[in-house]
Amino acid sequence: MTRYFIERPIAVIMTFVALICLSVLAWLNRPVSLLPDIDMPEMAIRIDYANASPEAIENNILKPMRESLATMQGLDDLQSTASSENGLIRLRFNYGQRMDLAFVEVNEKIDRLTDQFPADMSRPRVIRVNYTDIPIAKLQLIPKDGDNMIESSRLAENVIKKRIEQIEGISIVDLNGIVNEEIKIIPDLAALERAGIEISSISEAIKSANQELGGVEVKDGQYQYYMRMASRLNNAEDIQEIPVKISENKYLPIKQLATVKTAEGKVFGFHFFNQNRGIVMNIHKQPQAVMTELMPEIEKSIEQFKRDYPSLDISITQDQSVFLKAGINNLQGSLLFGGIFAFVVLFLFMGSFRLPVIMGISLPLSLILSFLFFEIFGLSINIISLSGLALGLGMLIDNAIIVLENISRKRMEGLSLIDACVAGVSEVQGALISSVLTTLAVFVPLIFLSGVSGVLFFDQAVSVGIILSVSLGVSFVLLPLLYRLFFENKANFKKEDSRFFKSIMRGFERSHHWTFKNKSISFLIIVLIIPIGLVAFWNLEQKGLPAITRTDAVLDINWNEPIDVAENARRAQNLIDEVNSTLKYSETDAGIPQYLLSLENAELQQSLIYLEFDSERAKETQLDLLEERLKRSYPRVSFERKNAKNAFDMLFASEEPFFRVQWQDPNLKEADPAAVKQKLKTFPIKDFEPGPSLQEESSMIMNIKQQELLKYGISPEQIISQLQRVLGNYKISELKQFAIITPVMLETNQKAFEDLLSIAKVKNAEGKTYELKNFVSYDWGTRLKKITADVSGTYFSVSLTEDDVENEAAQLLSGINEWATKNALIQKVSGRYFSDQENLNELAFILLISVVLLYFILSAQFESFWQPLIVIFTLPFGIMGSVIVLWIGGSSINIMSAIGMVVMLGIMVNDAILKVDTMNRNVKALEKKDKEGMYEAIFSAGIIRLKPILMTSITTLLALSPVLLSGGLGAELQKPLVLAVMGGLTIGTFTALYFVPLIYFKFIKLKKEN
């Protein structure tokens, strides 16, 4: 087959040119994203119900919804949380569930329950959870006139938002900080008392003056008209002139009885950028959009906005495309340095400029051809698939080097050019195919991991498989053809190695002879790597992601006091003042955010502060000061320091508690904090963190005096209605002008609660007025802040940290069961501890399957049951080499170093397979000649494979080394991977050169003796 391609150069070249053109088209059409487009089997339902307590939301809304949703097919878990004014239901389905159908079913179930929901509650919002929903950037809009929030909100919502959404590739722009306009009616209670009327008189007058006529038609001969009311209200000035009836013949305009003004609507949350109040836009992209092309378009639009709207300060923050750019830069760096070092190494070892040029053609060509298969398999260009390509590049270089070196060696043996190309490829063809299959045997089973890990590894495994398969095709078809074209006009072929390689070979010969003369000492030296590696492993820190220099942080603060959102914002801004000198910028969301895609169960007393510092050192120092200030100034505050969410955090981080104990009390009729705390006194672990269902808040308990109502002839409805008018924002009506709807709200002066009850009056059927306070009583108490529930009903919970559990999980579970039994509770344990244990067991099983597959592939390659064990025996040494170098380099065991070990094992396996394959051929040739001399056959194989093994190892090590000397996000993420590869590959090279021959010699000797 190889001869067929070599003898038809024009056909092969034209075929590759056509494939390259298709690959370029595929590359241009491939979506570019931060993450793969993962259809996560999760969904959330947001409930917003103003002025409702957690109990009201739980009993009236969440409970019937849970009962209805619990029957859904494929539902794995259901959790709900009710808090003041909002509720949240999280649904998790089994992987493989059709989420588009589930989304429709959830909405249908909500529609069926609509009649049971309170009339003044907005429809629950159903949100599909997707890990790619993290915004690609945030746009900050800060009015230069800080008091002009209403006009700025209209501009942001009606103009800027829509213009950004018109950019091709943008899916949605999610806003927070928007302010709506409303007309506020503030009654003068003293004036009302003098006039002898109630607050309700003002609201009734406004309603009467703002009546809709409806669809009345008027015909005038052949003409037809629609009639509208000429008295319809248009603005605050119209409302001021509305007459209110005082007596039979006396009327007063509203402006004499109340203050009428246009102002901001009730605000449940603020957004600040650098302590200036403003509006933020979270920009989300479509899954198929190319992010690297999208961000320049957004930046171009922002520049236009700055020219068109000078009243706004506009800036972009938290640009997530930097992570994708880091991945692309890493790939470009790997390709560039890999090519340069491959050129240098090939020249030093081979003494020819032509071979490096052939390598320089094949590397980018293989990469470009890979994108054609990306199109076929439907892969996007993202961080995961790019990492797969970067991993495959090292092995791609190995294949090319091995083929080129083998062809050159055949030329040195005296074969003609075409015969050398054919023999050079044929000799290593089987070994290279086996090495690719063994690498895939490690990667491919990882896609069977459950959960998001398996979905993510699918992209990586497929991209590695693509580039390795493409590299094989290029190595078997194009490389020998290029070799022929580059060398066919060269009259004299250099039939000896370069001086550089000759000096290396002399050293190898001496060391190889010494190794076989001192087998026991050699074995001992190699085996010592295992205990040293184990010591290093136990001293290495284990974490999900490598330590990255982060200059940003997020403070999640809950003041745990019944303060309003304005006080919440004031405290948050005062806190930022403490560290302002070391900040690049800050963002604050105080109160309840307006984001449509928000899954947080936020509260009015909660602030989320994003801080971008000048340096990591300043960040740590200033955050410690902030924590100290918080503890000192606000004893009841709870806060959490965490990293700002980015693509990697979304992938690997989890908000699930490490170890959670939840229980239900069948005997507890009410959520009494005192009763719950009493049972917690005997909990097996004293140092636990109370769950959301155990947090308390102050509350007011109001009672209506029924006996007084009967005595004075006043109905309970009158009392409730008057309380709503006096104490809360009471909607009277709304003004409609085209698409703009302006609410008309009744609002009292912000006086003390007791004063309002004294001033406000109620009137009985006889027209006599009485103070409102005579008919109500109130008291202060505490209640549970949130109510949590699952399919079985409401529950309480506590969380334990990793330090609390440590290695005593079995004993802890026994203690929890005993505690639950003693207190007659129904308990359940869950958390990351159990999912991690399950994942580790699953990973161990999959790795075992990988080793078995590796054995089967090598058995088929070598046609032997014992020779694959030689290759498998080298793997632990490579892993220990990786661990030792990670320890020396001050890194950790993390996801990136684990990927590095997998890559290293793939390269190690290549070298070992080639070495065993060559030794087998030499031994068979020796047996055919009926000669003794096993050592000479093994030594000859070492000489033959010395050059490709050293070239592949040195090229890979040199190509990776610049990462260790560079800085930035990309380098920090890649450093553990690089250290793992370099450590394992260094040990792996020595095992291929010395350990594999020793073991092979021992196996052959034992086989002959038996």
Structural class: alpha+beta
Radius of gyration: 37 Å
CATH fold title of the largest domain: Multidrug efflux transporter AcrB transmembrane fold
Q: Tell me the fraction of residues in β-strands, as a range.
A: 15-25%
Distance between the termini: 41 Å
Query: Which consecutive residue ranges, at least 5 long each, have pLDDT under 50?
Result: none
Overall structural domain count: 4
CATH structural class of the largest domain: Mainly Alpha
- Counted beta strands: 31
The overall pLDDT, averaged over residues, is 80
Query: What is the overall silhouette?
Result: elongated
Describe the protein's architecture and organization.
- The chain is built from 31 helices and 31 strands.
- It is α+β, with helices and mostly antiparallel strands and 1010 residues long.
- It folds into 4 domains: 2-33 and 323-489 and 497-544 and 837-1009, Up-down Bundle (Multidrug efflux transporter AcrB transmembrane fold); 181-264 and 699-784, Multidrug efflux transporter AcrB TolC docking domain, DN and DC subdomains (2-Layer Sandwich), CATH 3.30.2090; 552-642, Alpha-Beta Plaits; 659-695 and 785-830, Alpha-Beta Plaits (2-Layer Sandwich).
- A hairpin with a 5-residue loop joins strand 26 (761-763) and strand 27 (769-771).
- Helix 10 (321-350) packs antiparallel against helix 11.
- The longest helix has 41 residues, at 969-1009.
- The mean pLDDT is 80.
- One of its GO terms (cellular component) is plasma membrane.
- The chain crosses the membrane at residues 9-28, 331-350, 357-377, 383-404, 436-458, 464-486, 520-540, 843-862, 869-889, 895-914, 977-1001.
- This is Efflux RND transporter permease subunit.
